[in-house]
Amino acid sequence: MSNAANTRISEPQGIDMVFYRIKKNFTSVDPYLTVFGIFLWLFAYWVLCEGLQIWRFSKLPGPVAISKDWFAFEPFQGISIFTQEYYEHIRVSCQRILIAFGLATGLGVPLGLFMGWSRKVRDYVFPIIETLRPIPILAWVPLSILLLPGFEGPVIFLATLASFFVTALNAMLGVDSIDEEYFRAAGCLGSSKWDVFKNVVVPGALPFIFTGLQISIGVAWFSLVAAEMVSGDLGLGYLIVDAYMNNVTVPMVIAMITLGFIGYFSSGCVRALGNKLMAWHVKELAQQGR
Amino acid sequence: MSTPKTITKASSSAKAKKLTSSLVELKNVSKSYGEEWASDNVLKNISVEFPAGELTVIVGPSGCGKSTLVNLLAGFEKPDEGRALIDGKEITGPAKDRMVVFQETALIPWQTTLQNVTFGPKMRGDKKGPSLVREAEDLLIKVGLGEFMNKYPIQLSGGMQRRAELARALINEPTVMIMDEPFRGLDAMSRSLMQEFFLELFDENQKTNIFVTSEIDEAIFLADNLVILSNKPTTVQTVIKIDLPRPRNYKMLTTAKAFKYRRQAMELLHGEALKSFAVLK
Fold first, then answer.
1. Could you report the predicted ipTM of this complex, rounded to two decimals?
2. How far is B184 from chain A (nearest CA, A)?
3. Which pTM was predicted?
4. Which residues of A fall within a CB distance of 8 Å from B109?
5. Which pLDDT band, with edges at 50, 70 and 90, does B254 fall under?
């Protein structure tokens, strides 16, 4: 191992590293495939809606119509990157997601960990969670409107609920996934229960927790949008329904694509945070060639 | 793989400390698993003594309950009948006087090698700060892992992982080391290097060692006492005193005396293995 290190070139520093990474990235075929793939999809979309206008696709806004409005100073159908309203919808949705995801994580991770760690806690909680979990989030809408006042309450409640179940379940499975030998080793070394929790249970469950968080932030987004569509005054979900009601299709699709981008970005953030916290896990995956 | 550094005879810090070892005994121990009406008697009325400061190797056919024996000695499980004793006192649970090195690696994967080694003393709070780190570093250098202290276990080879585990156990200054097939899964070369290295450590520390294996050559090479288990139900069949001089080297395995031990053990084990083979059929 050490011999190989001597013959290697020295590690690039600072901005050189960035250039090195970019150069390396573009010498592989992957980025070209990605770009080509995106254009292929856009082209197919354009052919269907605007090029050949096949069947009812002619009723949908095509890529040209959308980008014309999206990047216009004075958009024909009301929403573009230059209108205040657009950012207001994004801001409101993001704020709700932050609260809902924060609540779901703050409650779900500890509960899941305790369910995995203690037989007793699991016996108390697990059957109830498993009963509530399959109930579709839309079925909760009337109840949440009855229970909570205003627009914000029900919307945040619904988004929280959906991602809470995912988070809790994954944290529990994460504890289950930890090899018994680590508990034995820790016991042998004289760890107290709390030490075992801090040093074995939590870090050992982290890979599952972060898999769960990546799913749960996605779940939070789609339950949020569903909630905003039913009960809301602002937000991207509301924008979609509002546009549909007013028979303007372009803002509808703009809101959909925006949701896609923000969702991608948010789960990317979760993934990056996970990799930062789990250097050992990243190395483990790298060792397996992944 | 970097080879372990030879332990110098004058490792003064280790010599200066009073190294103690304990006598471990099992007295009429029975253990079974499963429901009462369908219980599988894993151990039946076992009595065996592990003399202080000696290396006792347990061999037996696979599936005969060697790991159960380890679990009882370590304190992970309690006997149904009989008593497990250390220096005359009942074993009530895992403790730092009995360190276990497990079959497959049980290094904690989210801690670096160094963090793994300092884990025990840090948790118990009986050593801490820079002096603990220095002690751990010395130990790791001694087991040839000086360059790998800040690597994660996954980045080490199989042999390195076992040495890291030895270091993690030794820093707790146990009086008994329990090794449950610690070199299983290593390739033949690493395995024989590890055996030699392990013997050097043993000769230096003279702790009570309980070593479980299914390899006869390994058993004879290492042991002071060779405990051969019988199968279904498991009891102690024979204890052979291995009277080979220490320090040992591989040439001793080709002496007439070693062959005699080997033949004796083989005959006994073959009979036992046949028994379990027949049961399988």
1. 0.75
2. 16
3. 0.76
4. 280, 284
5. confident
